[in-house]
Amino acid sequence: MNKIEHLGIAVKDLEKSNALFAQLFGTAHYKMEEVASEGVKTSFFKTGPNKIELLEATNENSPIAKFIEKKGEGIHHIAFEVDDIRAEIARLKAEGFTILNEEPKKGADNKWVAFLHPKTTNGVLIELCQERV
């Protein structure tokens, strides 16, 4: 893993949260995107070298909707940049981590993504990200 790629924050209302985080960071979001396969709308902010992804559910069956129902709004995941997502999935699986999707899938911000089950990472949902080329 190279670095933290972004922090994902689950929100109920993306429009209101965009305004809040724009005020907090002193800058507007730079990108919004819907990932229909995951039932989520995303908005990205940059503050210094760091990225924050806001996530709003687009339907009640979305993982984000379920997360907010159980835990409320807040930090949803930590994403790490990797050079070779398939190799990293294989390495982590061999180390005993539970992979939620063993085949990378298309995520927001032009990334291939895969997730590790929080039960094997001290309760933290970990996302692996690799730039799609």
UniProtKB/TrEMBL annotation:
Is Isomerase found in the keyword set? yes
Tell me the Gene3D superfamilies matching this sequence.
Answer: 2,3-Dihydroxybiphenyl 1,2-Dioxygenase, domain 1
Which EC number(s) are documented for this chain?
A: 5.1.99.1
Positions in coiled-coil regions: none
Q: Which BP terms in the Gene Ontology apply to this protein?
A: L-methylmalonyl-CoA metabolic process
Keyword annotations for this protein, in alphabetical order, are:
Isomerase, Metal-binding
The yes or no answer to whether the keyword NAD is present is no
Q: Where is the VOC domain?
A: 3-131
What GO MF terms are annotated? metal ion binding; methylmalonyl-CoA epimerase activity
Q: What class of enzyme is it?
A: isomerase
Query: Do you know which PANTHER family this protein is assigned to?
Result: METHYLMALONYL-COA EPIMERASE, METHYLMALONYL-COA EPIMERASE, MITOCHONDRIAL
The UniProt family comment states:
Belongs to the methylmalonyl-CoA epimerase family.
Its recorded name reads Methylmalonyl-CoA epimerase
Q: In which organism is this protein found?
A: Muriicola soli
Q: What is the lineage of its organism?
A: Bacteria, Pseudomonadati, Bacteroidota, Flavobacteriia, Flavobacteriales
Q: Which gene encodes it?
A: mce
